[in-house]
Amino acid sequence: MTPCLVSTGFLVLGRCGRASVTACARCGRPVCDRHAVPGAYAGLCPECAAAQGYGTPYDPLWTVGYRGHHSHQTLPAYTQPGWYTDFDDFDRGAFDPEDQADFGDPGDFDDGERDFVDS
Amino acid sequence: MFWRKTRAAIAGFHPLHQKLIWERTLSATLPRAEWAALIASLARHGAVVRRRKWRLPERTESVLVPLIRLLCEDVDRGRVGVTADLRGRDVPGKAGPRQDLPVVRPVRRAQQWWVFDSWLSVRSELRDGSVLELAVTDVVRHRHVVKVNPRGKRKSKTKTKAVQRVYATRSLAKGQPFQQPGSPPPPWIRVRPRGRSRMVIRAVAKLPMPRQADELPLMMTVATELFRWTPARRRRSA
């Protein structure tokens, strides 16, 4: 049995875990009959359907979209000890006083076929 | 009789929906499926009822329906209890007694009174065995000042200051693991855990009266703070 891998809950997160009946057409995640999205976004899992746009709270899919929205909105309110470890040397280089106006080597952004100044 | 078709349509709504229209209050403890039936009934309101007098209270769509939806996501066999008083803070009985404040001339009289509007109380039995209680109270301070100028002209003004208090309590199941989060909460939330074998975590927030659209996000920020105090569950994925 392939379990349904749709995330459930808002305060207490978990996986559905019921037997899947289909797979999401976009991300390939197994989906059970309870979480198979009907209507315009049929064939998608709730997360992929909510990414297409979630409507009013009267829509059962609204909670899936709101979960991501709320997480994104409240993240800056919490002090994150690992925040600066997310940046690499390129990100920190913009704040280096000895490296002003240096945006990398000339060939860094050249993909060889389409020149930046070529119209 | 006027509006008879609308009255007949309202009679077909869910009983709690009707109570919300006529009395502007809601008090029920129901399982998840029953709440879904109520929300389905509320969703039909706008298409059926056009009369301004019978429209749903303002906080129904912005707070009540989304909150019920979110709480029902975390309930398996438990129940969600909601008590909402959406009559507003100007109804009789919510204002406290008026106090006279000391004054100096030209002020002749200064009075102060408080309005406590506990408009929302929620209790939810979550699927991890804990119980979440959420309460929201609007506290409004009114000050009325009367002054008289040297020519006897009398002027008065009333000032109000409103804050919203959000109380969230999570009672963990017996033996449920407990850990202090690695980072502090936002400065406007105060958290206090209590107990030993059965922990009770309480978060309190006091905010300047938020805009109606911001009420739910702020309430959920206070509620979600309590869930940082327990380790994440092991996922049941294969």
Report on this model:
The complex is a heterodimer of chains A (119) and B (238). Chain A is an alpha+beta fold and 119 residues long. Helices cover 20% and strands 9% of the residues of chain A. Chain A has a two-stranded antiparallel ribbon. A two-stranded antiparallel ribbon of chain A has the order 3-4. The N and C termini of chain A lie far apart (55 Å). Chain B is an alpha+beta fold and 238 residues long. In chain B, 26% of the residues lie in helices and 36% in strands. In chain B, a hairpin with a 5-residue loop joins strand 4 (107-125) and strand 5. In chain B, helix 3 packs antiparallel against helix 5 (58-73). The interface between A and B is medium-sized, with 27 and 34 residues.
Keywords:
heterodimer, A: 119 residues, alpha+beta, two-stranded antiparallel sheet, 4 strands, 20% helix, elongated, B: 238 residues, eight-stranded antiparallel β-sheet, 8 strands, 26% helix
End-to-end gap of chain A = 55 Å
Largest sheet of chain B: 8 strands, antiparallel
Name the largest protein-protein interface in this structure.
A-B, 27 and 34 residues
What is the count of DSSP helices of chain A, taking H or I runs of 4+ residues? 3
What structural class is derived from the secondary structure elements of chain B?
A: alpha+beta
The poorly predicted ranges of chain A are none
Topology order of chain B in helix (H) and strand (E) letters = HHEHHHEEEEEEEH
Whole-number radius of gyration of chain B? 22 Å
- Number-wise, the strands of chain A total 4
| SS content category of chain A | alpha+beta
Spatial order of the strands forming the largest sheet of chain A:
1-2
Q: Report the average pLDDT across residues of chain B.
A: 90
Average pLDDT number of chain A: 73
Tell me, briefly, the overall form of chain B.
flat
What is the CA-atom radius of gyration of chain A, in angstroms? Answer: 22 Å
What's the oligomerization state?
A: heterodimer
Q: pLDDT under 50 segments of chain B (min length 5)?
A: none
Spell out the helices and strands of chain A N to C. Answer: EEEEHHH
